[in-house]
Structures are given as structure tokens and as C-alpha cells.
Queue: 3 jobs
Job 1
Amino acid sequence: MIHILYFASLRDRLETESENLSLEGVTNIAQLKEKLAARGGIWAEVFAGDEPVLGAVNQEMAQEDTPVGDGDEVGFFPPVTGG
């Protein structure tokens, strides 16, 4: 089981700020995004669309191949720009 947090506009679009999810078939960030996109609708738009979604595992920036394990905390957020 992993704990997923959704931040900023993702939280608003997905209408949830967090959830717990089984790791069945998931070993890295890319597979987790695929599992979330498979829900369809807005989930597919967010996680399989053209917009980039950044991830972090246990509060460390993650790449698509970053491993995800039982008990991890995963955060997803849109890219942030500053001025």
C-alpha cells in the first residue's frame, strides 16, 4: 500500500487531495501513472495526456523509473514556474 498526495491544480482537477492505493502491478512512477490513467476520464487526461506531471517519492523528486515500494509516500504536482 502506498499513500498518494495530489497538489495544486491536480488536487482541484481530480477532486481529491490524497488516497491509499495497492501496489499491485506497480514497481515505479511510470507504472503508477499508467494505473491512475487507466481509471479513465479526468484521470486519463491528467496522467496520460500531454501535460507533464511531476512526482516525488518520500519527498524526493522522482523520475519515471524511480522505484515505488510498500509504505512509500508519493506526491504528484504540476510543474511550477516562477518569476
Job 2
Amino acid sequence: MKYMTASQAVQLIESGDHVYIQGSTSIPEVLSQALADRGCELKDVTIYAAFAVGGREAPFCRSEYKDAFNVKSLFVANNVRKWLADGYGSTIPAFLGEIPALFRDGTLPLDAVLLNVSPPNEEGLCSFGISADLAVSAVESARKIIAQVNKSMPFSYGDALIHISRIDAAVEVDDPLVEVPTAEPSPIDVAIGRHIAEMIPDGATLQIGVGGIPNAVLAALKDHQHLGLHTEALTDGVLPLLESGVIDNSCKKVMPGISVASLALGSRRLYDYMDYREDLVLKDVAWTNHPFRIAQNPKVMAINSAVEVDLTGQVCADSVGTRIISGVGGQHDFMYGGSLSEGGRTFIAIPSMTDKGKSKINPVLAEGAGVVTTRHMVQNIVTEYGVAQLRGKSLVERAKALIAIAHPSVREELDRAAAERFGYAFLRLK
């Protein structure tokens, strides 16, 4: 291993380079800071920022560095969100599962990668730990690999491995990983979770996201049997099901007996659980999120969230009007793969109202809102008031079903909007 200081390691970065910075909760903060410290001497360095939860704003997102670093976000993460909103960077729309191909075929040129890895094992292999996702393809595609070797990083199996001979510069650190507190489900989350859990059969394969609603779903599955896990993000919510044996992966067709994810974000307890665990692997996101691979598993239950839904079933999940607030992640991949799975079902789970008292079910999407899941693909929309099963339903039948699970205070308004839009075809259903 070629050990050196962080300031020495980032000397490998030159003006005009394209750099990928590892994401999830494993941003290599020491290397990122060292790179930012060179902001006065570099120019036109493109930084690809991935899905990530940063402990602070990215250090290169400073006005005096606006000509040194050009941030191109592959998912609008919290550490670059304000920088992008202020117009200093931009986002690249893409399904998360398709981004690795953009690196591999050179559509997104890549010169260097900043990694956060575990100490090497006896075979000289370091693990990317909790972030295989885009890091696997980035390492394959880049000329220069710069890594902080972090005592706090768990060793995970699967695709997220690199031999020390591949690392051009290494920096020893003991930098605690960002921890994402387990979201405590609200009473609304619990109600939504129960609605969904009632539709999940024993032997199902789960794809589940992050937050109070996913945790409520998982908590409601404690009496199920022989569940499997093939997901994009691994969170603390699955730990009770793994530890109790409810998730045993015995019915999966793809890697039976193994829990599969592409990244992890949670508490130290989750990271410790992952350490050297051979029945849990992290895979390249192009592999985990491939719709036809997802579809090979039986009874795939894909559970995702949204910003808003319109009366025809169009789902916006990445923006508030024209303002991009996140990314599409794997929602499309799992909604499509789940729909192709034998016995599979897909869900968009949302509270009926935002925290500010605005309905999440609206006559039309907000002006400029992006459609992540189309009306042609959506199956079930779930709020605390029930499940709107839209598969095979006409537009007017969808509108009626969605109004029935909207917040009672807006149903009359939605009813009028549907009648005006669809005319007698809607009125005859009343």
C-alpha cells in the first residue's frame, strides 16, 4: 500500500480531471477536504457526486472555488443540494442502475476516484464497505484510485472489493461513518405500513427504501415467514427481520440464502452487523437494479415513496415543481422489475398530506414536476386511508380510487377537478 498524507494523495488530481467521490454514508471526507484545499490552484475539475448522506456541506462547494470545481450530481444529495439550488452546479438525470454504463462506455469520462475503504484483509483486499453502488464501475473506469483506508469501515463481501495493488495513493484514517438515525414511524406511517404488509405474502422478496414508512412496513412483517431481501439500500429496519430469521432468503431465485443490497445507510449497529458477514453482499448497482434480474425473483414487493401523485397515477419523486431535490434512484428499476416478477406487486407509499398541510394527491402535478413512475407502470398507491389499486383501471376509475384515499379535507376539491377533467365518464361512477 502506498501510504502518504491526504494533501500528498490529492496531488494526483490535475486541472481538467473528472473525479468520482464515493457516496452513501461513506463520503471520503478527509480526501474531499484535501482536494478542496487545492481549490486555489486547480481549474475545471469535474466532480461527480453520487447518492450520499454527508455530515456537512461538501467543502468544495464554496463560491471562491466555483471555477475550480464543476459539480455534476448524479443524485441531489444533502451535501451539495444548496450549491446546486444556487446555480453553481447541475444534475445529470439518469436511473441509478444505468449510471455505471455511463462510466464504463466513457459517456461520463473519469480520471480519478476518491474512495473510503476498509483496512485490507489477509489477501490484500480492501472493501468499499457500505457503498458498492456506483463505486464499483467508477473504480473499473478511472485511471487513478485514491483511497482513505478507514478503521471505521466494515468489510463487506460481493463486488465492493479492491486489491491494494490497484490503489495509487492511500491515506490512513479513523473517520467515523455518518450514521442515519432510525426513523421512528408516526401513527400515519404505521397505518400505511399495515396496509402494505397485509398485501405481502410469505416467501416474498423485498425491495424497500429509507424512512418512517419503510420501517413501519418492516415492523409489520415480524410474523411473516421466508422473506427475501434484494434491495438497493440496506437500513437498520431490516435488522430485526434478519436476526429473527423472518428474512432467510430461502425462496429467492437470485442468490438464494443471501441478502443482497447495493449500499447501506444506518447506525453503527448496522455497519457492525455487516462486517465480514458472508450471507450479506453488496453488489454493483447495475447488477442489483437490473429490472430483468429483479424479475427473476418470485413475489417481488417493491415499496417506494413520492413527492406527489396526480389523479391519473403519475408519480413525481425527485422534484418540487422545477426544483430538483433528490434523484430517481432505483424506483423505476424496481417498479418495472417488480411488475415483471411472478406474483410481484409494486407500491408507492405516501402520507395523504405533507408536513405543511398540502395534499400529496393532486388534480395535476405541480408545474415543472418530473414524472419518475409513469401512469402506465404504477400499480398501488397507499396512504393512511387505504390502498388505491390502479393496475388495469381506466383514468376515471383511477381518479375515483385515488380520491378515496386522499385526505378527507381535499376530496371534494379533487372530485370537482376530476368531474371537470373527465366529464360524464367520471360522473357516471358516482
Job 3
Amino acid sequence: MAGILKENPGFEYLQEYWQNNLALQIVIKKLLAKFPQWGIAIVDGVLIDWEG
């Protein structure tokens, strides 16, 4: 939904799913590549909120 709506679901929300589901990591990586303005990056396999 976040990709369709182009709205940031929030760092905590993404981080929760990042840690619990390998398949969703792929989706999250694609979202973050598509929306760099959200200020969330992946560094060494860890989500980083570089604006917060």
C-alpha cells in the first residue's frame, strides 16, 4: 500500500516487518529505493532512520 499511496508508513512499522519476514525485506528494499525522501536507509542489513 505504501508504494501505491507514496506515503511513508513510518520507521518503526518498517523495522518491525524488516526483522520478522525475509520476503518483506525485499519489498521494503524496493520501497526505500523508490522513495529516498523518506529518510530511511539500509546499512549492513539494518534499517537506519537517518532523518530521525
